[in-house]
Known about the structure:
Elements: H1 2-24, H2 26-59, H3 81-86, H4 93-104, H5 106-115, H6 125-134, H7 136-148, H8 153-169
Helix pairs in contact: 4-6
Amino acid sequence: MPGSMNIFYLFSYYTVYLNKFRNKCPYFVHKTRYSVIMVARVMLSRVFILLLIIFFSAGCVRDPFRVNLAGIECDITVKELGSEIFETPPPELGAKADSLITRYGRALTTYSTVLGLGDPLDERWKSSFILFATDLQNLTLWDEVKQVWPSVRPLEEELEGAFRHYLYYFPESSVP
Length: 176
């Protein structure tokens, strides 16, 4: 057991030596604690400054589509063909069909062609149009459409904004 006594003796001597050193120089211990805290503060401040730089540089990106449209006038009105068709009483649909042809022109021709009603200038178109406008499934669908889109004003505002951008980038053009 002489070897184990040497280890115990060395350990106790080392402990006593360190305690004497700490008692003689308490400023050293406080200084090391202070320096660790200062290093941590410096690291945190650098990380914070880096995050601020990233945040502000990302916020400075200019949106190329955000332009001043104050001087550009564009008045869009949406004609509601659907409301004129489905909100007309059935006995008045024959007379309404003639006025729709003059009011909507090519748009009504395209609408009728898509629906399969034929050309509005054809004599059989009026009877097909009245059958379409009085069909219960179409009337039910129109009621559902009106629940989702009670007004076309939001659509008009979006279209006005889009055409104002169009006129900003193509000032010589006209709104279709």
